[in-house]
Amino acid sequence: MLKKILSFSIFIIALSIVALFQISLPPVWVGFLSEVNLIPLIIVALFFFYNVKTALLAVLIFGFWLDLFSFSFFGLESISLMLSLFLIDRISFSFLTNRSLYSFLINNILYFSFYSFFTALFFYFSNFESSGFFLFQGRFWLSLIFRLTWALIISLISFSFFSALTKNLRPVFLEKR
Amino acid sequence: MKVKRKKPFFIFLAILVVTIILHYSGVLRPLENFLLFSVKPLSGLFYNISLKTNLAYNESQREVDPVLLIEKLQEEKASLIIEKSKYQEIVDENRRLKELLGFINENDFRLVLAGVIAQENLEQESRELIINKGKLDGLSNGLAVVNEQGVLIGKIVEVQDSIAKICLSITPGCEFASSIQNSDRTQGLVDGNLGLTVKMSYIPQLEKIETGNIVITSGLGGRIPRGLVVGQIISVRSESNEVWQEAIIEPPLDFNNLTVVSAVIP
């Protein structure tokens, strides 16, 4: 019991530190570097390597910190993270049949795309930007491309790392008798 | 099977909805303020690390000697601009007649020191800084923010209990009522220009402005006091067939290296 409480506390603290890191560091860097976003990567990794409940818990923790430091509608980030997770859960259950590298990459690409779309959409409606709908602006697509590139790079590295740690991701070949 | 897969989502969605309701009803405010207060130092530390890595990267791209010389000259230039503006104000004040009764000290304001803890990049040329002071420290919307030398950095655009967001003077949309220290005492509105400089537009052609003129806040409207240095005019666009002329103003500070700022409370 005590061990569970301790591991749960460490989990919350670790995710909170990652959230603060994400809020304070990458936005200050310039260009391509500023689009690094560890939060969706960690959520997808938890969803893929553990279970959906752990990923949902991460969504709540990350979303709370992002909303706390955000000056937009409280809950905007949490709702975007949760909706994106719901969609990739549906897609994974319906279309992706195994836990391979390509499945992990597809999950990451989809999650980043959904998350970027939902945050931009909610931000647009909550602030009524006069510069036009975000889908018709180049900076949205450029930012999305940079984020997806980072997602693919970090996913490749993390998948190799995790697959070396666990046997769950080893391929199983059926022999014909 | 499908219902079982959706069940955790319903539970966590319910928790999220309850959290949002508690936030807007104010029940969560003490916890939020406590958490923000606790993490502000860590957030500031991450922000400073990020700034230092940025600076180190920029330094490594340059040759050493000319860079040191240019930085030294820029610092000297910044302090000279501020001194010049102060002397100009003293000379102007001495020329005007002041009445003894009803005289108000024009520098009667207080400063609230704040640390920059995060940055929001809205667009390529648009940045906003988040500082670790808020309503509980006496801050409110519209207050000017300056650096340690009293040069205008921007103004507060949104404020929560423990944190506030400031727009930079070089950001488009961040406007200030300003005055040029020229013979005509030209008044106007300055706005950010491409995230690099500040621009004053719609200056009548009859007004005489030239490069080198100092631009300060005029104190008209809003809660920004008069006399805060905005920058120095570096170019004037004036066509004889146009009604208005335009001035480009360069602020004497580095917006990429802001860690400590002060909010000006009149």
* Oligomeric state of shown chains: heterodimer
| Total count of helical runs of at least 4 residues of chain A | 6
Q: What is the CATH H-level superfamily of the domain at 176-250 in chain B?
A: Rod shape-determining protein MreC, domain 2
What is the C-level CATH assignment of the domain at 176-250 in chain B?
A: Mainly Beta
State the order of secondary-structure elements of chain A, H for helix, E for strand: HHHHHH
Radius of gyration of chain A in whole Å, from Cα?
Answer: 17 Å
Termini separation of chain B comes to: 64 Å
The spatial strand order of the largest sheet of chain B comes to 1-2-5-4-3-12
On the 0 to 100 scale, the average pLDDT of chain A is 86
Uncertain stretches of 5 or more adjacent residues of chain A: none
Task: Describe the structure concisely for a colleague.
Chain A is mostly helical. Chain A is 72% helix and 0% strand. Chain A has one domain.
Can you describe what's shown?
The complex is a heterodimer of chains A (177) and B (266). Chain A has one domain (34-165). Chain A is globular. Chain A has six helices and no strands. The relative contact order of chain A is 0.11. In chain A, helix 2 crosses helix 6. Chain A is mainly α and 177 residues long. Helix content of chain A is 72%, strand content 0%. Chain B is of the alpha+beta class and 266 residues long. Chain B has a domain at 176-250: Rod shape-determining protein MreC, domain 2 (Thrombin, subunit H), CATH 2.40.10. Chain B is built from three helices and twelve strands; from the N terminus they run H-H-H-E-E-E-E-E-E-E-E-E-E-E-E. In chain B, strand 3 and strand 4 form a beta hairpin. The termini of chain B are far apart. Mean pLDDT of chain B is 85; it is low at 99-106. The A-B interface holds A 16-17, 20-21, 23-30, 34, 52-53, 56-57, 59-60, 63-64, 67-69, 71, 74-75, 78-79, 82, 86, 89, 93, 139 and B 5, 8-9, 12-13, 15-16, 19-20, 23-24, 32, 35-36, 39, 42-44, 46-47, 49-51, 53-54, 117-121, 123-124, 130, 158, 160, 163, 165.
